[in-house]
Design brief:
- The protein is α+β, with helices and mostly antiparallel strands and 165 residues long.
- It has six helices and seven strands; from the N terminus they run ββαββββααβααα.
- It has a three-stranded antiparallel sheet, with helices on one face. Strands 1-2 form a two-stranded antiparallel ribbon. It has a two-stranded antiparallel ribbon with strand order 6-7.
Length: 165
Amino acid sequence: MRDRATDTPCLPCLHPDAALEITRNDVLKLQLVDVAFKPGTRDCKVIAGTLHDPYTGTDIAFSTSNPSAIQIDHVVALSRAWDAGAANWTPQQRVNFANDTDVNLLASQGKANQSKSDQGLDTWLPPNAAFHCDYAIRYLTVAAKYHLMITSADAGAARTACAQK
C-alpha cells in the first residue's frame, strides 16, 4: 500500500509481517464512514469509524479498543474457492484473490461473519434479508471474476434471493 500523493510506502507497510493489517486497513478505509486515522501514518492505520453493515443492516462503531466488532469477510470463502478451482491457481493468483478489496472482501459484523464461516450461497445468506440479492450478486461476481465453479445449489439460492427483491 502506498500513499498516492507522495508515492511512498505507508508506515505499516514497512513492517514485513503487516500484510494482513494492511489489507484490513484498506477495506476499513473503503467501507467505513467518518473514518479516523492514527496520526503520523499517512492515513494508513484506521483507528475509528462507522460501518453500515450490509450483513445485519445495522451501524457498527469501529475502534481499536474493540477491533473484533468488525471483521473482514471473504464473500467467497478461501476454502470454497480452493474446492471450486483455486487449487489450480498460481501463488500470485491466490494472493490476488485473498486480498481483493474490490469485490471479495467485505467488512461485516464479527458475529455475522463467524456464523457464515466458509459456507456458500446454498447454506448461508446474511441476516439482513434486504441484502440477500446484493450478496448473491456479489458472490456470483467473485466466482465469475476468478473463474470459480458454482454449484447448482448456489445458483438456485441466488435465483431465490433475487426473485424476492
